[in-house]
Amino acid sequence: MSNHRRNWSLSEKLEAVQLMKKEGVGKTSRQLEISSTTLYKWERHFDKHGEQGMLSKPISDKNPELERIKKENHELKMLVAEKELIIRVQNELLKKSP
Q: pTM score > 0.70 for this model?
């Protein structure tokens, strides 16, 4: 098996996925000298995004709304942690006061 990276064209990737579905991943992997992991990744990208997913830089799965919500969630967690710390400090000070 070759140790260098190869750039596969869109048509080669599509043919490889079709061959994999017909002949199986093991046989296709050996025949094309490509890892089964790569074949499965191409198949997943094709199934999810069609030919566009087979390009060198597939479509991002990032959802802007989801990213905004994740950021907001992180900020809220930080705010809650800060408030909890303030409450703990206040409780400790109350315990120490006469």
A: no
